[in-house]
Amino acid sequence: MQEQAAEVIKDTTPLLTSDTIVFGMLMVCLGLIFFTSSRKSGFWHKFYKVVPALFMAYFVPALLTTSGLIAPEWTTVEESGEVTEGATSLYYMSSRYLLPAALVLMTLSIDLKGVFNLGPKAVIMFLTGTAGIIIGGPLAILIVGAISPETVAAPAMPLPGPGETNEIWAGLSTLSGSWIGGGANQTAMFEIYGYNPKLFGQMVFVDIVVANIWMALLIIGIGRAVRIDKWLNSDTSAIERLKEKVSSFSKKVERNPSFSDLMILAGIAFGTVSLAHFGAGYISGYFESMVNSMPEGLSRNMLSFMSSPFFWMITITTIIGIILSYTRARDLEGAGASKFGSVFIYVLVASIGMKMDLTLIFQNPGLIAIGLIWMAMHAGLLILVAKLIKAPYFFLAVGSQANVGGAASAPIVAAEFHPSLATVGVLLAVFGYAIGTLGAVACTFLMQLASAV
Known about the structure:
Elements: H1 2-8, H2 19-37, H3 42-50, H4 53-66, E1 73-77, E2 83-87, H5 90-107, H6 112-116, H7 121-147, H8 149-152, H9 168-180, H10 183-193, H11 200-222, H12 225-232, H13 237-253, H14 259-292, H15 298-302, H16 309-324, H17 337-353, H18 365-389, H19 393-404, H20 410-417, H21 422-452
Antiparallel strand pairs: 1-2
């Protein structure tokens, strides 16, 4: 039986499996990217005028994964037939340790009043992105179903268990939860509609491929933000005022950091990580008990995000950063607080990039087509509304990522415009957690109707 399993299960072990070695390789890649992007003339100067360094920090690790040199997870089949599963911990490390450290360092000098003065367009674009996900799903099913009915038909195998279903719309409901809210909302949709867990992997695959392609396109757009804003005829004055105010403050307090400054920054960053994890553990545990005590149904699943430790980790981190911005700790921006935060963010970007195997784009083309059309609807509606209300590209990109990427990637996109804007991405992403399940239920209802056509 073991020999038979070994013939069926493919060995996907990459060349390098040690996190220590892979982390070093990613850091070398980031170092080379920033070395070449700092050139003032020649090929690299022209290259980075077209391709942003942030995109390369994402794309190069993806190439390493595609080549088989590294992998986010893998299956090893021994000669004896024994099968073992392996995975890297680098994304977990960077999203759970470095992300909260980066957020608090970037928030130290935040002008919260200036963030609120950005106006309602940020929220409008976020909600537009949500609406794009809700209507994009059923439209994608209708379009692909008309061309390839078998793609949207429920497969007969593997057989679903009691209370489970193989219906494609039920599987896509998990994508709507992920693309409006996050992982907790995705899990809630998985539980609500009982999608066959044996088929769930293919939905995760679509999520990774489509969401990462869209994030890459948004990052490329950042390098062309001025031209895009001109085409949108957008008013970027509020954003520029906030950036200028924060930049002026940074110059005012700028100094050569002392060893004490660096140690204080490290203490604030990772002390916040500690407090955030400590608080998140207790608070999520409390809400998990509360949510589990509720009767099964929509109300219970709508509140499932409250039991997510990641949600509370991000929330607590943001609150600590905002509180510190009203103290003398904000002067640490002059010692390079946001620069150190940016280093952590780029490590996170690289770890996200290594989750993407570019060859996956060509597997299961039907489901990928549904995902790409779905995301195109989301993007199209965002562009239309941005044009109508003259919203800057910043609001379009961050509003989209707050939906599709959540709290892990929305701050990345926001911070690329300016470190002081990272908090905007966090606040919108937290809002996405709150409405994720309800929006996903509305989307799933429409997808169910579309599948019946």
